[in-house]
Design a protein that fits this description.
Blueprint (H helix, E strand, L loop, with lengths): L6 E4 L9 H10 L7 E5 L2 E5 L1 H7 L1 H9 L7 E4 L5 H12 L11 H11 L10 H13 L3 H14 L8 H29 L5 H9 L16 H14 L3 H15 L5 H6 L7 H11 L14 H14 L3 H12 L7 H4 L13 H22 L10 H21 L7 H9 L10 H13 L5 H8 L9 H8 L6 H20 L7 H5 L10 H41 L3 H44 L1
Parallel strand pairs: 2-4
Antiparallel strand pairs: 1-4, 2-3
Helix pairs in contact: 2-3, 4-5, 5-6, 7-8, 8-10, 13-14, 14-15, 15-17, 17-19, 18-20, 22-23, 23-26
Pathway: Protein modification; protein ubiquitination
Main location: membrane
Family: Belongs to the NPH3 family.
């Protein structure tokens, strides 16, 4: 309802100038009757007649009655809904002139009729009834027309849109209801076409997860507050999550278009203040993933929203929610998704801290899954899917480290933290990690020797492939101690390949790491079994890779024996060189033993002579 204080009346001696409005239609009906009242709306004056106004408008009737006289000739209506243009349409209705009610003026006319109290008490089919009939029979039956009316209310009536029940509830509920109807019609038509579909396919059709609605583009014209109300109403009505996600993606694309890092750094004040509110609101509207393995929210969209949230300075809760959703599917992330630009000046080129938090959430999720799988009531020995996810993430992080390693502003602390956060069993081979470390040390030549050794210690030499070992043996940035270890491992591998054994020098040590003691507590026994299970999985993966290497070596040996002349001599020469290297290491060891035995013999002789 409109407050009485918004209407004020006053007496003026000088008549107001007759506007063009009055000459256009008032003199047609009352050609012989001069106007007896002037109404001022937003600085625009209207010379009118009291009789048609007090007949249809309860507000003007009360105003004239309270004036206690017939000399009231000037009135001013303050805060009139829709301004003087809407008042002109209302006056046309009072004078019986024809005009068209459309989706662009029905909301303004309805608010003006409520303001003027043009109810059925004064005349049947008054303006309130006419606009209400148009809304019920025309607007609310169409999703597109309901969106047009709601968007018009946002532009024309920003101060009273929430006060009008028809606008605040009717349009929103009509949009949601029409969306449900569209989904039901589409589902039934597809079920008729696919009578032989399976149960799972029928369930997807019923829930609306296998089709995208056509109306998602229409909702992008709404303000974020109205859009939020519409989406919440759709969720209550049961609109499919696939359509909801499509609407959120299209709205984000249309409302956040053109925002980039260069624009943010050059002129951050040019960005609208409500854009961060848009990101936060869209994140709260994301459907809950009932099954994280089959989520319908694209990862590219989640990463795009995360980058926008960081760039626009969204709330911490918004960013943490996006990071949580991404970490649930970390094994599906691509390298391009992780390359999040940093918005802080003077910092590294990429946001390494965000990637570190993603890994923390991912490892926490893996730990929770393993705890459930290793429960005392479980018959299995763990989740193979969890270990496979770890291996995928390990390869992804190694590629990410190699990509960000050339950054001159990347600190050693952050680089090492990304390496150490993953457990040892997340990497079957360290070739990718070796490449990343080598690139980082090449780009950061000013590091101290202690820092260089600290980085190289993160690599396990026994987890390097033959190609990586050959490269490390000739790499001048690799410390001498590591070069010796690599050469020793190469000799052992060559010796084992010649003898025909599998030759994993770490296999026996890992398996014999200790059997759980009977004196251990059940929790410690359970933790020990988990560690052994992880080690066994890692060793199986290594054995498979080693087997493939041996098969390649066998093919090379066969090819060398088949070749003629010099090729065969070269092949046997390479074998002899390898045997010579083994002899060199073994000879040095025997010479040390002989020297030590000589010293002990001399000391014993001295002791006997004394």
């Amino acid at each position: 309802m409109v407050c009485e204080n918004s209407l004020s009346c006053s007496k003026r001696s000088s008549p107001a100038t007759t506007p063009k409005f009055c000459n256009s239609f008032t003199t047609r009906i009352f050609a012989d009757v001069a106007g007896d009242i002037t109404i001022l709306i937003d600085g625009q004056s209207f010379l009118l007649h009291k009789f048609p106004l007090v007949t249809l408008s309860g507000k003007i009737r009360k105003m004239v009655a309270e004036a206690k006289g017939s000399n009231v000739s000037n009135l001013e209506l303050l805060n009139f809904p829709g301004g003087h243009q809407t008042f002109e349409l209302a006056m046309k209705f009072c004078y019986g002139m024809n005009f068209e009610i459309t989706t662009f003026n029905v909301a303004r006319l309805h608010c003006a009729a409520e303001f003027l109290e043009m109810t059925e008490e004064y005349k049947d089919q008054n303006l309130i009834s006419r606009t209400q009939t148009y809304l019920n029979e025309i607007v609310f039956q169409s999703l597109q027309k309901s969106v047009e009316v709601l968007s018009t209310c946002e532009v024309m009536l920003p101060t009273i849109v929430d006060e009008i029940e028809i606008i605040s509830n009717g349009c929103v509920e009509a949009i949601a209801m029409n969306a449900c109807k569209e989904q039901l019609v589409s589902t039934l038509s597809k079920l008729d076409c696919d009578d032989g579909g399976g149960e799972e396919e029928s369930r997807e059709l019923i829930t609306g997860t296998n089709c995208v609605a056509w109306w998602v583009e229409d909702l992008s014209v709404l303000h974020i507050n109205s859009f939020q109300r519409v989406i919440c109403a759709m969720l209550r009505k049961g609109v499919g999550s696939n359509s909801i996600i499509a609407s959120l993606m299209h709205y984000a694309q249309s409302s956040l278009k053109g925002i980039g890092k260069s624009q943010f750094l050059n002129n951050p004040s040019s960005l609208e203040n409500d854009q961060s509110v848009i990101v936060e609101t869209l994140v709260t509207l994301l459907p809950i993933d009932k099954n994280k393995n089959s989520s319908t929210i694209p990862l590219t969209f989640l990463f795009g929203m995360l980058k926008m949230a960081i760039m626009l300075g969204a709330t911490i809760q918004c960013r943490l929610e996006l990071e949580r959703r991404i970490s649930l599917r970390m094994e599906m992330v691509s390298l391009d998704d992780l390359l999040i630009p940093s918005v802080q000046s003077g910092d590294s080129l990429f946001d390494v801290d965000t990637v570190h938090r993603l890994l923390e959430n991912f490892l926490k999720r893996i730990e929770e899954e393993e705890t459930e799988d290793y429960g005392y009531e479980s018959d299995g020995f763990g989740s193979y899917t969890g270990h496979g996810s770890l291996l995928k993430v390990g390869q992804l992080i190694d590629a990410y480290l190699a990509e960000i390693a050339p950054d001159p502003y990347l600190s050693l602390q952050k680089f090492v933290a990304l390496i150490e956060i993953l457990p040892n069993y997340a990497r079957v081979i360290d070739d990718g990690l070796y490449r990343a470390v080598d690139i980082y040390l090449k780009a950061h030549a000013s590091l101290r020797e202690e820092e260089i050794k600290k980085v190289w210690k993160l690599i396990e030499c026994q987890k390097l492939s033959e190609e990586a070992c050959n490269h490390a043996a000739q790499n001048e940035r690799v410390p001498l101690q590591m070069v010796v270890q690599v050469l020793y491992l190469e000799q052992v591998r060559l010796k084992n390949s010649l003898s025909g054994s599998s030759g994993d020098i770490v296999m026996s040590q890992r398996i014999s790491s200790g059997v759980p003691s009977a004196a251990m507590s059940p929790r410690d026994n359970y933790a020990s079994l988990r560690r052994e299970n992880r080690e066994l999985k890692l060793e199986i993966s290594r054995m498979r890779m080693r087997l493939s290497e041996l098969e390649r070596e066998q093919m090379v040996m066969k090819q060398g024996m088949v070749d003629k002349g010099g090729n065969g001599k070269t092949f046997f020469k390479n074998i002899s060189k390898g045997i010579g290297r083994i002899a060199m290491f073994s000879g040095q060891a025997e010479e040390k033993k002989q020297k030590s035995s000589r010293k002990t013999g001399r000391s014993s002789r001295r002791f006997s002579q004394s």
